[in-house]
């Protein structure tokens, strides 16, 4: 009965009206310091309009220099997100909110830099110069207060590439490599394909927020002869921003047991209000001995297809071993377009990023609140960071195949199934909300209708 009422409201009141009412109530609750607010979605809310100029705090939420509500048609460009439906058995009309890239056009300063490089017409061998390294170092000092050195930086075509290289360079066959599932699925794959032993320190979901089981963490490192720990910070997919205390505690255990830490910090530019990202290697000079920091502009500026990452390795011995392994792959330097894009992003992309983050945060607020009020049995965990939502569907009581049928074939929404991130992800779905709001609204409406049809 409740599901029928919710679906009825969705039909008679345009979804944009409902979303606007939900969003403005949520904003007011934040500004008034309210933590638990019941948001109505009936006629009173749905028909009430509040323009950006009359928003409670005076900010023009929807008036931006850059347009994130529309994006170029990506179909036919060879992108994974839209053009690999057949390979992934996804319906042609399913809305793709799965792979973690944005649908937004990248920052104009990056587009201009790429145009300039393309129009030159000579595409020979290129390499990173001082201005490239300075741009990277300035970004991390300016945004995180982390002072680094040029010699620490080793460029690679991707963070996953670098993680595989670390596993190969710093561990031997059958050595233990520890990860914390549910976690970005290439972590486990990288350990296994390199012939190492996967050791899991499962995260604990406690009241909708994940925490680390430190007793298990220390025991596994000691008893399983772990040689390397791959940390996800911020955490994908659960959205945690690890506190300074949590990071220090993990690192001290690793230092005491001679464990190298590979810290994947690719999502570090997406940290939401009330939380602070701490670069692990920057918390204490002694951490430079065993911490390798993996970064990239790809998530931040939507340039993953250019294949560019910057790996910070302060310790000279670790850096030498990493470079030796890198040379053995036959890889040379970043291509000229990656160099141009990264340099432009870190020197002139800040304004675009701040507006993109505001837009994505508004998407998150809307999605969380709409789900709470209109999709019974589904819970969106409130992320502390990243542009990914971790949706808990366990209350629906569906098995993996039933859940996939509901989401992919009945709701026609293409998401990443939780099981991809480890057995602890069973019953969850990962949603990429770095997309135009109308698309996200449509996906939520379709999911609400599909859940309603279950008759719960």
Please provide a written account of the structure.
Helix content is 41%, strand content 13%. It is α/β, with parallel strands linked by helices. It has two domains: 2-72 and 82-105 and 362-394 and 405-452, Alpha-Beta Complex (Aspartate Aminotransferase, domain 1); 110-348, Aspartate Aminotransferase, domain 2. Strands 2-10-9-8-7-3-4 form a seven-stranded mixed beta sheet, sandwiched between helices. It has a four-stranded antiparallel beta sheet with strand order 11-12-15-14, covered by helices on one side. Strand 3 (176-179), helix 8 (186-193) and strand 4 form a beta-alpha-beta unit. The longest helix is centred in the last third of the chain and has 25 residues, at 350-374. It is globular, with a radius of gyration of 23 Å. Mean pLDDT is 89; it is low at 1-18 and 26-61.
CATH names the topology of the largest domain as: Aspartate Aminotransferase, domain 2
Number of strands: 15
The proportion of strand residues reads 5-15%
Second-tier CATH architecture of the largest domain: 3-Layer(aba) Sandwich
Helicity level, as a percent range? Answer: 40-55%
Number of helices: 16
Structural class: alpha/beta
CATH C-level class of the largest domain: Alpha Beta
Rounded to the nearest angstrom, the distance between the terminal CA atoms is 8 Å
> What does the average pLDDT come to?
89
């Amino acid at each position: 009965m409740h599901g029928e009422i919710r679906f009825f409201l969705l039909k008679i009141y345009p979804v944009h009206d409902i979303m606007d009412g939900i969003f403005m109530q949520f904003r007011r609750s934040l500004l008034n310091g309210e933590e638990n607010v019941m948001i109505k979605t009936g006629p009173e809310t749905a028909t009430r309009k509040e323009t950006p100029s009359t928003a409670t705090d005076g900010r023009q939420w929807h008036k931006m220099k850059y347009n994130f509500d529309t994006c170029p048609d990506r179909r036919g460009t060879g992108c994974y997100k839209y053009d690999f439906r057949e390979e992934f058995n996804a319906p042609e009309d399913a809305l793709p909110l799965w792979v973690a890239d944005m649908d937004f056009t990248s920052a104009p300063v990056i587009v201009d830099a790429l145009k300039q490089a393309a129009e030159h017409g000579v595409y020979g061998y290129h390499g990173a110069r001082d201005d490239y390294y300075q741009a990277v170092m300035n970004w991390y000092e300016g945004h995180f207060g982390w002072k680094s050195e040029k010699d620490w930086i080793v460029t690679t075509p991707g963070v996953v590439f670098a993680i595989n290289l670390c596993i190969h360079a710093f561990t031997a066959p059958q050595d233990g490599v520890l990860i914390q599932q549910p976690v970005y699925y290439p972590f486990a794959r990288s350990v296994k394909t390199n012939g190492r032993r996967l050791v899991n320190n499962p995260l604990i979901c406690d009241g909708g927020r994940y925490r680390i089981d430190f007793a298990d963490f220390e025991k596994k490192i000691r008893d399983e002869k772990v040689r390397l720990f791959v940390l996800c910070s911020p955490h994908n997919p659960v959205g945690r921003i690890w506190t300074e205390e949590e990071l220090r505690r993990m690192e001290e255990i690793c230092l005491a047991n001679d464990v190298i830490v590979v810290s994947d910090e690719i999502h570090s530019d997406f940290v939401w209000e009330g939380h602070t990202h701490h670069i692990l290697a920057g918390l204490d000079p002694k951490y430079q001995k065993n911490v390798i920091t993996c970064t990239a502009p790809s998530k931040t500026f939507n340039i993953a297809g250019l294949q560019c990452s910057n790996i910070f390795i302060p310790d000279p011995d670790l850096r030498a071993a990493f470079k030796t392994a890198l040379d053995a792959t036959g890889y040379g330097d970043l291509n000229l377009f990656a160099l141009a894009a990264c340099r432009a992003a870190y020197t002139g992309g800040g304004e675009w990023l701040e507006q993109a983050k505001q837009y994505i945060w508004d998407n998150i607020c809307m999605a969380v609140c709409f789900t709470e009020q209109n999709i019974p049995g589904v819970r969106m965990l409130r992320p502390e960071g990243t542009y990914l939502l971790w949706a808990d569907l366990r209350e629906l009581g569906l098995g993996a195949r039933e859940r996939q049928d509901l989401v992919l074939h009945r709701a026609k929404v293409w998401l990443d199934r939780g099981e991809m991130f480890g057995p602890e992800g069973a019953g969850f779905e990962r949603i990429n909300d770095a997309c135009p709001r109308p698309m996200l609204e449509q996906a939520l409406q379709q999911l609400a209708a599909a859940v309603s049809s279950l008759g719960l």
